[in-house]
Write a structure and sequence with these properties.
Blueprint (H helix, E strand, L loop, with lengths): L4 E8 L5 E8 L9 E9 L2 H8 L15 E9 L9 E5 L14 E4 L4 E3 L6 H23 L9 E3 L5 H13 L3 E5 L5 H7 L3 E4 L1 H4 L10 E6 L3 H9 L1 E9 L13 H5 L3 E4 L7 H14 L2 H7 E5 L3 H9 L6 E5 L1
Parallel strand pairs: 8-9, 8-11, 9-10, 11-12, 12-13, 14-15
Antiparallel strand pairs: 1-2, 3-4, 3-6, 3-15, 4-5, 5-7
């Protein structure tokens, strides 16, 4: 009989009332896959918070182990790319949504979903970056491909004190950008400046209904908020600029007009981290290992144990979490 391990299981009854409990499972309880991984570290993302609290329909298969990303060591593999002892990272691919996820001692997954843990990055630091930081890097790479280099002008980062925002600021700062950080928690100004932000603005400046066009304030943006915030960011982006959009913390709607696109040539760059092809993932993690000051990871992350996951999930949905939360298993 295989050794048991702790897991968080989300289930619901015939009336669709959700229940979250800590359980003991074995390998036989895991879903199909050709690689089994001993989970060493995971994290609590906004999406994980929604899954555990049931505030949004993230979980789509019941019962399910939530947790959309992990770092760990391969314990068994029939996949040609991976062998026992390999250090790997997983982000997305429906893990924690339709496939058992990270909040367990072990995970069995499709080996195509894994990437190599970069040399010099520990499992803990990989999850201090996590899906939020990997998404932030995808946003930065998209801006670079569009020609938004530091010489073009400032870049605005919304939801700046959150996971995506915090890592985005740290990356942009190391690359030499001038950064405008938008946050609803102006008490975090010192923290955001320590990560590399030049200017701090209150999110209220961007949360009201947007004009079709407003004064040009930045060459680009990284937005994890959506709704009126993204509409305002677009209306204030300078000629030929671009905005990477990767989140919906403020809403899924986008109440804007075509004016920024057809009168200023602004581009809206959609960023999906869940199903991104493996080569893009590998490039993002390679860039993280070189373009993120690992010294900043201590500033932007806190560490909790497995037993603290549920409380952290509630806190992140309520906007009480600063930066990244790492779960050491």
């Amino acid at each position: 009989m295989s050794e048991s391990f702790k897991a968080i299981l989300v289930s619901r009854d015939e009336n669709k009332v959700q229940k979250v409990e800590e359980v003991e499972l074995t390998d036989s309880d895991l879903m199909e896959g050709d690689v089994t991984v001993a989970v060493e570290a995971t994290t609590v993302n906004y999406k994980d918070g929604l899954a555990i609290t049931g505030k949004a329909p993230v979980v789509r298969k019941w019962p399910l182990i939530p947790g959309i990303d992990f770092a760990g060591t391969v314990t068994s593999s029939s996949h040609p790319d991976w062998k026992e002892g390999d250090k790997v990272i997983l982000n997305g691919w429906g893990v924690g949504e339709t496939h058992h996820g990270a909040y367990a001692g072990r995970a069995r997954v499709n080996g195509d979903w894994l990437v190599k843990q970069p040399d010099g990055i520990s499992a803990r630091n990989a999850m201090a970056v996590g899906t939020a930081g990997y998404t932030a890097m995808l946003c930065v790479m998209a801006l670079e491909r569009h020609g938004i280099v530091p010489a073009r002008g400032p870049v605005v980062v919304t939801g700046a004190a959150g996971g995506v925002g915090s890592v985005a600021i740290a990356i942009l700062a190391k690359l030499g950008y001038q950064i405008v950080a938008s946050t609803g928690r102006t008490s975090e100004s010192a923290y955001l400046k320590s990560l590399g932000a030049s200017d701090i603005i209150d999110r209220e400046e961007l949360s009201q209904p947007a004009k079709a066009l407003n004064k040009e304030r930045w060459a680009g943006g990284i937005d994890s908020v959506g709704s009126h915030t993204l509409a305002n960011v677009l209306s204030m982006t300078s000629y030929g600029g671009a905005v990477s959009a990767c989140g919906l913390a403020g809403g899924m709607d986008l109440p804007t007009s075509v004016a920024p696109f057809i009168l200023r040539g602004v581009s809206l760059l959609g960023i999906d981290s869940v199903m991104a092809p493996r080569e893009i993932r590998e490039e993002a993690w390679r860039r993280i290992s070189t373009d993120l000051d690992t010294g900043k990871l201590a500033e932007l992350s806190t560490t909790i144990s497995f037993s603290g996951i549920q409380e952290a999930a509630r806190d992140i949905v309520e906007g009480k979490i600063r930066g990244r939360v790492v779960v050491e298993m």
